[in-house]
Amino acid sequence: MHVHQVKTGMLWTQLRVPVQQASIALVQQTLRSFATTWSFSSARLDLMELAIEESFNTILQLIHGDINLGGGWAAAGEFEIHICIQNQTLQVRITDDDLPYDFAMLPQFTPSNLGQADADIRGLSVFLLQNIVDKVRVLPPSVHGQSLELEWQLPEADATMTSVTATEQSHGWQREDISLRGLQAADGIYVARLMHQNYGYTYVNSDLYIAEKIGQRSVDGRLYSHVAVTPDEELVGHCAIMKTSADADLLELGAAVVAPPYQGLGIFNRLWASLEQQLPQRSEKAVCVHAVSTHPYTQKIVLQHAYVMCALMLAYTPVSMQLKSVHTLQDAQRGSVFYCCKLLQPVAPMAVYLPESESKQLMAVAQQLGLPLLNQADADWVANSAHTELHYHVEASLNIAYLSVGHWCGDSLAEIHSVLRQLCRAHIDAVYALLDLSQADARLFYQDLTALGFISGGLMPYSPYPATLMLQYVNNQFLQEATVFAVGEAAEQIKHLVFAAYHQREGL
C-alpha cells in the first residue's frame, strides 16, 4: 500500500490496498482526513465512510459471492483508490484488478420490500449509495480495470476548482456535450494517441498507432471510423469498421476506445450504435466482433445488436492485451474470445459437408444466423491433386497462426503434421485451422486435423469462406473454464462444448 500526495491542500491522494474487508477502515480514514481539509461537515464525513463500506462490500459480493473475505483470507488482487478534487467535487474512484462485476446483477430494491417475508435485499447497498452520495457511476471495464466512482459536491465556501495536471484536467462535459462525427484526415495522430492511452503498444493492429497508416486505411476502404469529440474538439473516443482487404466480404467492428477521464458517459455505446446504423448500407456479406471473455460487457453489447455467438477461439489474445483479471492468473493465461457474427445480405442455400460429430451444433448456429446450409451425404470423391495444399500466416502481435487447407490427398496427415511441428517449434501459442465446408473433402481434413490434436471451435462465416469451420490447436497453454464469461444460452453451450473437447484432449 502506498499513499502519494502532491502540493499542499490535498488535491489528490492514491492508495493500493488488498481486496479484503480489512482494507475498508484504512480507506475510510484516508478519505476522512482528505475531506476534512475541504471543510465537509461531520455528518457528511460519516456518510462518506458508510459509502466506502457499502461500495467495498457490494463489489466483493459481486466478485466472490458469499465466501468469507475477512480475517486471514488471502487476497487475490488489489483495489486502487484515487481521491481527488475536480470540477468542484470530491471524487473517489475504486478500481479493481480482480474479476469484473455488474451492478445490473443485483435486484432492484425499494424500501417497501422490507416488509415482505421473501424480500431480496441484495440491492440494498446500491440503494444506500444512491441516497448518500451525490453521484454514483460504474465505469465499464477497460484496459485499466473496472471502476466505481463516488462524487460529492464541495461545500459552498470552498467550491473552487483547482487543476492538478494537464492530463487530469476535465471541463466537466456531460453526455449531451459529446458529439460524434466521421474520422477526418487530421484525426489520425489523436486516434493513435488514444489507442496507446488505452492499450499501450499491445493492440493487435499496429497500423492504428501510426497516423499515416490510419489515413491510408481510411482512403483504401479498410477502415471506416466514427470519433467522439468535446465542444472544444478534443477527440475522446473512437470506434471503427475494419476489413482485412478492400474487397473482403467480412467486416469487423472494433478498435473501440474511450479516453479514461470520459468513460462512464455512454460514449462507447453511442459510437457502436452509430456504426451499426451504417451497416445496412454496406455491400459486404457479414460483420463480426471478437468479444472478449474476460468480462461480460462486450458480449451484452453484441447481443443487443442481434449478433449470434458462433465460435469460441481459445488462447486468442496474449496476456499483455487482457483486461485486468484475476491477480493469481496474470502472466499465466491467455485470453479467449467469442466470434460473434450477423449477416448483412441474404445468402442463397449452399451445399456443405459437415462432420457428423459437429453437424447438430453447426446447423443450430447456422439457423440462428439465417445461413441456409444443406448438409450433403458422403459421396464418392477422388483426390484431384498430387499433394495436399496448405497455406498459413502468423499474426506476430498475437503470436497465433491461421492455417488454410485445400485439396485433400492421402498425404494430408503428414503435411499438416509437418506444418504444425514447425509452428510449435516457433512457440506459436494457438493455431486456427479454417475449413471450407462447401468442399467435398472437408470431412477428410476434419479427420486428419482432429487426429493431430485439433479441437472444434465453431462456425465462423466468411472468415474467409461463407461456411467456415474453425478448428484450433492450443500449444502448451493452461486455460481455465471458470475464467471465461459466457453471456446467453448460445455462448454457454459453445463454451461447454469447446472446453469439454479441450479437457478431453489435455487429459484434464
UniProtKB/TrEMBL annotation:
Domain N-acetyltransferase stretches: 224-286
Keyword Transferase tagged: yes
Ranges that cross the membrane: none
Pfam families, per the entry: Acetyltransf_1 (PF00583), HATPase_c_2 (PF13581)
Organism superkingdom: Bacteria
Single annotated GO MF: acyltransferase activity
Ranges where the Histidine kinase/HSP90-like ATPase domain occurs: 18-138
EC code: 2.3.1.-
Entry-linked Gene3D superfamilies: 3.40.630.30, Histidine kinase-like ATPase, C-terminal domain
Keywords for the protein's UniProt record, in alphabetical order: Acyltransferase, Transferase
Protein name: GNAT family N-acetyltransferase
Species whose genome carries this gene: Vitreoscilla massiliensis
